[in-house]
Fold this protein.
Amino acid sequence: MKSIVFFIATTIFSTNIFSASIDGALSKNNDSSQEIKESIITQSIQQYPGVCACPYSVMRNGRACGRRSAYSKPGGYSPKCYPQDVSDEEVARYMKAK
């Protein structure tokens, strides 16, 4: 069961990376934008105090968090889990801060 959950989580993550690399091939600016979005997502997940920030996160028992994730629940923490969660404004702010 753990290997199935790992496969699903890996597939979701790989699909996001693959689509990001295709998008990045279209435009150099978009490439840096995708990298910045990934960085913002990583920081957002790291700031979450629990283990179930995103639906694809894995609980301590090895199962995917799914609907138990903070992302899936209204109110409270709202971690950024997917590139579409990061606005262009957030990317611009990140670029200015660097």
Notes: Residues 2-97 form one domain. The CA atoms of residues 36 and 94 lie 7 Å apart. The chain has a mean pLDDT of 80.
